Here is the input.
Amino acid sequence: MKVFSFAFVVGVLAATSLTHAADIIGTITLTGTPPAAIPITPLMNDPICGPLHKETPTTHFYVVGKNGEFADVVVSLKDAGGNEITGKSTGASAAPAVLDQKGCLYAPQILAIQTGQKLIVRNSDPCVHNVHTTSNAGNTEHNDVQMPNGPDLNYAFDKPEMFMKFQCDIHPWMFAWVSIFDNPYYAISGTDGKFVIKDVPPGKYTVVADHRKLGEKTQAVEVGDKDVTVNFTFEVK
Amino acid sequence: MNDTKVIRPLHWFAVLTACATFFLLGMGGLVTSHGAGMSVPDWPTSFGYNMFFLPIKFWRGGVFYEHTHRLMASVVGCLTIILSVWIWIQDSRRWMKWLGTSAVLLIVAQGVVGGLRVLLSEDQLGIVHGVLAQLFFILICALALFTGRFWQRISNAGKISVPGSLRALVLTTTVLIFVQLVLGATMRHQHAGLSINTFPSAYGKLWPDTSPQAIQYYNEHRLEIMNVNPITAFQVILQMVHRIVALVILVFVSLCAWQTRRQLGAKDALAKFAAFWLALVVVQIFLGAATIWTNKAADVATAHVLVGALLLVTGALWCMIASARSAPLRAAEHEGFGALGTFVPNK
Here is the structure.
């Protein structure tokens, strides 16, 4: 019996190791000099929003570290042929994502979710906002009022889309871009330029790095049972 | 020929309505310039409130522009209804009664289109809304003109008839200005900021590169605070067409001013009107350039819209006056219809 149990455990472990999912990790770097960020002066001129900031906030199109670490790049997977990976979303069972309105700015301004995943939009500001979404992929568009510190708004979108726009028309400098995938294989580079796409099943893929201003870069990759490193370099000419 | 009494209160009420409409046009321009068109998501209510009782605490940011625009539109709607009823009661000209009714129908349609633009979140309806506003402004200004003493005077005999070729030239120019306003409205409702941010050159060239690589380059280097949609080759070409049509309009209006002066004499009211038109075009071109130089500053862009409206209405009124001056003898012969210049208050 002991021998049988041992053999069973070994068998399970072996089987598990055969189907073990690996991570795709990497770093995004920017070369060249991007245009300087613009101070959002209309925000500071607003009698409610202005006092919420000590310094004038700036636009966040290019978030770059000292050594070119490039943040806010959306990294995702397509199949080896470059087609969308569909039908793999964990949907409503995925932990809700949160998009906050704080200091009359969206936080974060770049976000990614799965189809069917709950997206909570929060208003942490002492002023009214309208949450206005615009879709280029046929997702339901919303324009909802959210009172100061009012109840959260909950959304879910059923079609994949890159950089779906969220905006507040009351404070027309407020924007966020939410990318929607029909799978859980995506990540957004942090301020250190690093990203991790977790638990990718073995196979051949196309890794896609998308920046809202600089567009898309791709690399082919084969994932086995070990983590794979894929780095991208964007350039501002 | 026409010695009947002008109803001065009616005329001045029509002028008041025209002024209010001009003000409303400016407020509508500010709504688009500030990107505030969708800041009040519901209609005809505002944040669920009856529009006229929206608490003042909401009147901030984009809501201020959108909500005051709605209130002003209500005022203009009321003024137009009163004007129309007044015309029905006191003005004997049948075509004037229907013109007044048309104004009411147009302002109602305009309000509905504005509301649908909000409810359906359709930028294309914003273009229609902007263009209808210009047409309504012409109609209201025409009502003000037709109820006034000036209209009566110019339709009297003894004036020099305006040659058909000159009238055709001015009409063509007016249509061209209308096309230019449609182009402008289309540009404004793309919500993409300036598709070309240099003037007089276009990205350093006479005609900008519109290849995909160039468009990508423009988008990489343009940082906008408000109008963040990326620009497209279509939008770049659209602005170039707008610039070219502006030059064509300058040439045409100059020609109109010169020909009017030459054919009717410098002292003729229409010659002075045409000279005013030319001055407006020069101001408008400067405002167009300033819109680019100031990166589409809201007040400058709105002034550009307003002067555009004045240009259109000047051309349209010029055509109406010229027609009246050329038509009275012919029209007076038509019993039961009456000349455009015949103004007979109801007894």
Summary: Chain B touches chain A at residues 34-42, 47-48, 58, 60-63, 66, 121, 216-217, 219-226, 228-229 (CB under 8 Å). Chain B has eleven helices and no strands. Residues 332-347 of chain B have pLDDT under 50 and may be disordered. Residues 160-340 of chain B form one domain.
